[in-house]
Amino acid sequence: MNDSKIWAALEPMFPSALEEIPLDGNWLKPPYADDPEGRAIICNDGDFQYVVVDRKSSSVLYVCEDDESVIASSLEMFVSIVAAWRTIDNDTAGPVDDEDFSEVKKSFESQLRAIDPAAAGPNEFWSLYTEELTSEDYVEVEDSDEDDDEDLFVETEEIRADA
């Protein structure tokens, strides 16, 4: 699979939909560098983890040091999985408790099994990620200006004490 075919699948999702995927790193544009196995690197954290598209099978894999897990069995399924994740990510205001959030996770896992059973496997990327999620991951806590001012005051006092 060449870079233009990979980009044709990724471009409609670039960058907003891809950035909602729970990965550290930057989503890349072509030309794609190859990893040691000849797979196209489409996302890279600049350190030791990245996402590749296997140029032969079109599978999308998460690589972290010596471990690999399936994100999607094919680039086409990846597009569908991203759409399912994005729907849940955008439509979920942030369930108040873990019981409510459990239903959200179950909904995504059900969609994932229907889209790509291999990607829904117990030791693959999505199952490893979703088992660690709690409602706290989706409840945004906004710091008030008072908290920011208080932190600045403490830092200023510490600097004065050191002087």
Automatic annotation (TrEMBL):
- Please give the residue ranges the record annotates as the region Disordered: 140-163
Q: Which InterPro entries match?
A: SUKH-4 (IPR025851)
Specify residue ranges for compositional bias: Acidic residues.
Answer: 140-156
Protein name, entry field: SUKH-4 immunity protein
